## 1
Amino acid sequence: MKKKLLLAFITFQILFVLYFSCYTAYSSYCEFYKIKMDSSVARITKKLVDTKFIDTYGSFSGCNTGYGFFAPNVRSTGTIQFENGNNTYYPKFKTNEAENRFSVFVDKISDFLLEDEEEKKVKNKNDSVKVKYYNLLYKAVAARLFNENMCNNKVSYISYNLYDYPSLQQYTKGEKLPQFLRLYQIETILDE
């Protein structure tokens, strides 16, 4: 009896992972190429995926992470860069907790900057408040880095950048280091 229950659970788990992976691959593909998911199978699948049981089970078991079109569904992470004169600085932390909190801050910036254009239209009324909020946080980080590094120039730039890794062709030609894609930058005027 225990073997049958274990076999049933393993079968359910494997089918669940396959089902969810197929769904996330298809939905990611449609979202990436801006194709409407209009098939009846896709609508039924979306309703099933959105049920409370499936959502809860997927969250607790880790099966809803998806291994699909972007295999696995991992987005780019960014970094914050502070420039003063010809020098570039990155935040340094004394504790793991500080580093974790800062990484959550960077993730929230990533979510905001990489948000789909359609979602931005819906949330447009709150964007101006969010932009002001993030600019204030940027300036706080800039002020800290300015003081920590005893910078001389009053005018500084703080930016959010994504890593742009070289393609395989570029890598074979000797380009091995990633470049930065600057998504957002503000100028700060700081004084000691």
Note: The chain has a mean pLDDT of 79.
## 2
Amino acid sequence: MIEANDIRLEKKTYFKLLLRNRFSKAWWIYLLPFAGAVLLQAIDTEFDWGVRFMLVYGVVNPLWVVAYLYMHTSSPTARAVALPRSYRFGPQEITVLHGDGSSDQYSYAEVHHFAMRKGEMMIYFSASQFIYLPKGSITPGEMNHIAQQISLSKNK
């Protein structure tokens, strides 16, 4: 059994994680208005207002997403994210012990995918539900062992 050190996710870190998840997975979507503007300009130079709209939308939309994510991380509904928690990785399941005394349990088969980056690990159960293990919460060897457990459960 692997036990992670207690983790307390700060608002700033949570905001950065949400930004990274949003923009790294779908960065190309934010380029579509600019591509549309170039295409409209190439097809019909009379359609100037459409080109301007797409350029403005291409700039405003990502800014709106950043503002929305910031408001979300500052909202009362996101307070539970800041609670301290610890993780236990058993042979078949992941147990999450929250600072308020509640707990959750997930089997490795429920894991959608995982990502390791610069000593951190993200374990995704869906696009918006994840476990974040920051650098230093577990050793790199333990992180690799967890990754193997997830991979083995996916191959079954």
Note: The CA atoms of residues 71 and 83 lie 18 Å apart.
